[in-house]
Amino acid sequence: MHTIDHAELADVFNKDEARVDWHDETLWWIRQKRDKAVNQLPEWELLRETASKIKENVLSNLAGYLEEFEGNAQKNGIIVHWAADAKEHNQIVLNLLKGKGINKMVKSKSMLTEECHLNEHLEHNGIEVIDSDLGERIVQLAKEPPSHIVLPCIHKKKEEIGDLFHEYLGTPAGNADPQFLTETARQHLREVFLTRRAALTGVNFAVAETGEFVVCTNEGNADMGAHLSEIHIASMGMEKLIPKRENLGVFLRLLTRSATGQPITTYSSHFSKPRSGTEIHVIIVDNGRSQQLGRPDFRNSLKCIRCGSCMNTCPVYRRSGGHSYHNAIAGPIGAILAPNLDMEKYADLPFASTLCGSCSNVCPVKIDIHQQLYKWRQVIVQKGYAATGKKAAMKMMSLTLASPTAYHLGGKAGRFVMKYAPIAVNNKLNPWYKQRDMPEPPKESFGEWYTKNRKA
Amino acid sequence: MNVGLFIPCYVDQFYPNAAIATLQLLEKLGVTVTYPKNQTCCGQPMANSGFEHLTGGCNELFIKNFSGFDYIVAPSGSCVLHIKEHLHSRQHEDEAADISSKIYELSAFLTDVLKVESLPSKFPFRVGVHQSCHGQRGLHLSQMSELVAAPFSKPGSLLQMVKGIEIVPLNRIDECCGFGGTFCVAEEAVSAKMGKDRIEDHLEHGAEYITGVDMSCLMHMEGLLNRRGSKVKVLHLAEILNAD
Amino acid sequence: MSTARERILNAVRANQPASTPLPEIIIPASEIDLSTKFTETLNNIGGKVIAVNNYADILNYLEEATATRLLNISSIPELQQLRTLDHIPRMPHSLQDTELAIIKAKFGVAENGAVWITEDLLDQRVLPFICQHLMVVLDASSIVANMHQAYEKIGMESYGYGAFIAGPSKTADIEQSLVLGAHGSRSMTIFLINA
To answer: Which domains does chain A have, with CATH numbers?
Structure first.
């Protein structure tokens, strides 16, 4: 069976070079906005370090904090549910809606529900879901998954969005003005907010000591949904916990500066108690997180606050697009989270990197992303998910490199580098040669020169 | 001071001039240099492909070749980083740790150990400096654009000592070139595009030469430059520092 | 069979590493003029600041600007004469035609231009989102430098709902072109009272 592969999808993405340039420049611009914002804070590195340490404390006391949060949330009148996996999560949401006879729901951005494929499940069961974040609504209309966790339709050109709006929302053909399209979406979704009895949001942070949770948006869609509905369902990955309310100060300073270069999102909403006559339900979701917690080399990936800065800075992501990662979460962070869920299906992702390390440097919670990419490569190979041909070549390489005699054997053409270096074979089948010339082979190697010129 | 010279395999085979320049430069600065002739490779090509478990024999050989030197110097940030992070041995772990602590990338050895303050070199050309990621982000040879921290550059400070040189500015001062070891063939499309974008930045700013601490990145960019028939050349940092 | 809760908590307990301490937050604030910084920051994120001396100034300003607008003034006794609603609405939906809402904020944050509001300041939680335009009354003396000081000020205060609001609703989802007025208010104006 042939599985989807990042390199192949990236190859397709690169057929249109002008579009790759546009995608790269757009995301690089956001990286630059991030740089400008963080350089205004001399305490930036201290903030990152503090945040990383807070999350370390959370992960090392997670069970206790989960219980503390649950108890305090319940005291506040919030109903808490637990879901071991995506299936349980989706079933809980469906049951809540069915219990109230609701068949239409409005949703604000939640990467967790993308991870769980909630929309498909609900639609399969006769529930209509409308995504209210503009970018998410656009990809929903296009029947595509988001390509970026913060900028869901960053891969789409405004003309394509104009076409979608023309088809589904009745805007005039050919109008691709962002101002006009946004206004159209505002009118369309306002009607949705006013008529939906159920709203689902994600959770950016949940505070153990108070039982409240915080949702951050720029558009105000989470609030419009939640404050106009009779039931607010908040889906929360269990690593979203933080111990104390004062910790929010650290994370809210880091999150949006890292994500978009704004000093804070327009709205940082703290939900503590339901409005009278309404309900708030929090679903705490595991879905592989407890397993990742048990992997010492990879548990720090659970520190992630989903800012997306690793995607914006990643030179590979910028030139391959989010969909090439064939996973709900793309980019470097997706590549270290996904193999935990399905090592075979996502065996390619840790290799979709040059290990340049820029991701680890922008990460606001200091996840050692590129180190984890390296470590996942080792695990994936050890578990047998590497191609057979590669295994044989590596075995030969290791024998040759362990033996100076074998390494130097056979004259120029038979020597090690000539055999194994990707650059050495000058033919059409060699991917190196497709766009790059091979280096001019010198008259003599350094070793040969040294023997002649530095004889003791 | 007795220094062991570690020349990465592809430099030995394809870019002997970079190795010769490294040797001559160190000798010029009064260092006694020995080149252990049984050396092969650091093992990085296997390890970065997920086969670190097969690098045992390679590691033992490295330890055998390079134990006992005051320092080990190599004209490569990437290979040095690999040794620092991944050289281990069941039987000789102490020696492995000793080597890891004594191995230096060339520019760091010049600035941090030899504390070089002037060089007799001359290179009257416009030069673009490529920051190779493993040297920069792995070995901290230069400040990284992602961090809020004071700028510095070890290769940069050495290039400033070269007479006549003009360092060209770049739009993206430390973006990866896309070589990435086996990435360069496994992810050919992205790798080549990254490389094209990098050289474009240098060309736009009028570079006549592109230099850096890693021949592997330069080899990748050279392949792209030559394919398009560009006159711009790549040179290892050592070749510029040794030029007269 | 055990519940999902037990299974999850058991798995977490089995897999969580040895406890590490929760760090203290010791992050120095820069010395800045708070009102100036707040105004600058809010301007940068699409908001507007009008400096006033007292509520009379606000009333004067509003007299012309808002003559024909549907107004909702939440919990500001000094401005109740402008209020067009004679009751507190039971359903949040009934606020859908609110052209302008004026609310009081508890304090502002200089580093990001945000104001802190809690639901006791609002007729309905949805008010600052559903209105077309939002005006906020803020005492200049209440501005703090950064978010650490903000949470110090909030302390363990109890609220059903609270929010930091920083500027008008916005989106840049279409090719990164910034558009104000996504789903929430199209504008945000702060009356900064320098008492």
So the answer is: 1-15+24-38+307-386 (no CATH), 41-287 (3.40.50.10420), 398-453 (no CATH)
